Amino acid sequence: RLHSAPERSIVLVGLMGAGKSTVGRRLAQRLRLPFVDSDEEIEQAAGLSVAEIFERYGEGHFRDGERRVIARLIEGRRKVIATGGGAFMNEETRALILDRATAIWLDADIGVLAGRVARRPGARPLLKGQDPKVALTALAEKRNPIYALAPIHVRSEPLPHSAAVEAILRALA
Ligand code: S3P
């Protein structure tokens, strides 16, 4: 299938807490590919955390950096890329991912997402000062139809992460 052409990088998209980084890292190990997390790349380039970038320069600035980082990652050698939850919402970034990589929507119930983001309070500026369940429900409503444009959709629960990895490997085969 075209979307799983062996030379294409694999890009995980989906809401905060879906397990993109954890599942992505394990998937990369299984495929013997490098793993890169776009949020981490941006943080390294800026020398600031995602929360600090939002605070000092605003979301627009973060999105610009995110688009450039993802474009660069996709251009390079084949790898597994975990993206921040909003990356795929940017039309240009999304077009690039759909065009040049294999996009996988990793998805979970709101309660699971909320439980996972609660483990790193303060790390997600879009949830700042809000009930994570309420905020994530609103984001899911807006974003899920767009995540659904990814050719592969895997639910990361109730499966353990290892089973989500297996489900992705089957979908790619
Ligand atoms: C965001 C998700 C975050 C991070 C930023 C914005 C979003 O990444 O990029 O806080 O818009 O959903 P994770 O999905 O890895 O939490």
From TrEMBL:
It is found in: Cytoplasm. PROSITE patterns: SHIKIMATE_KINASE. It comes from the Bacteria. ATP binds at residues 17-22, 124. Substrate binds at residues 39, 63, 85, 143. Gene3D superfamilies: P-loop containing nucleotide triphosphate hydrolases. InterPro entries: P-loop_NTPase, Shikimate/glucono_kinase, Shikimate_kinase/TSH1, Shikimate_kinase_CS. Binds 1 Mg(2+) ion per subunit. Belongs to the shikimate kinase family. NCBIfam families: PRK13946.1. Catalyzes the specific phosphorylation of the 3-hydroxyl group of shikimic acid using ATP as a cosubstrate. This is Shikimate kinase.
